[in-house]
Amino acid sequence: MERRVEDFIFRGTDEEAIVYIIDYYGEGIKRLIFTYVKNYAQTDDLFQDFLLKVYQNIGQFQGKSSLKTWLYRIAINTCKDYLRSPINRIFSLGEKFDLIKISQSAETQVLKKEYCQQLAQCIFPCLSNIGKYSF
User: Three-class SS of residue 17?
Assistant: First the structure.
């Protein structure tokens, strides 16, 4: 089946290719990005960056590797670039200050964790056992 995907990429327009990539690989790539950044908002932003890079470079895909391998490599490189960037350091430092500044009661922490789990379930419905992830 992978060969057909690559043929589709070569024959279709760039816009059709992006729609196909989002439909068939989008959730997996979002999960991959999340494993790097551990933040849902940043995951969405990096997914948009990933799509832009794919759109700009779709013509360079030669089929020497599978499409999935090529896409995952772009996603991983996008994450690594972000994690090395100064903006990531600023966000990380801000989160640390927030944790120091606000001491929450046990009840507030439990409610916040439940809210995060519900939000995660809405964003990533394919994760059935969301409770095993810590937020």
Answer: helix
Alpha-carbon 86 to chain mean position: 19
Residue with tokens 């809210």: 115
- Amino acid at site 21: I
Rounded distance between C-alpha atoms, residue 116 and residue 110, angstroms:
10
Return the half-sphere exposure (C-beta side, CA atoms, 13 A cut-off) of residue 16: 9
What pLDDT digit, counting tens, does each position of 12-48 carry?
Answer: 677 888 888 999 999 999 999 999 998 898 999 999 9
HEC sequence for 38-96: CCHHHHHHHHHHHHHHHHHHHHHCCCCCCHHHHHHHHHHHHHHHHHHCHHHHHHHHHHH
Q: What confidence tens digit (pLDDT) does each residue in 113-124 have?
A: 787 777 777 776
Encoding tokens for residue 36? 């790097």
Q: b/e map of 75-87 (b: 16 or more CB within 10 Å)?
A: bbebbeebeeeee
3-class DSSP assignment, residue 15: helix
The one-letter amino acid code at 68 reads K
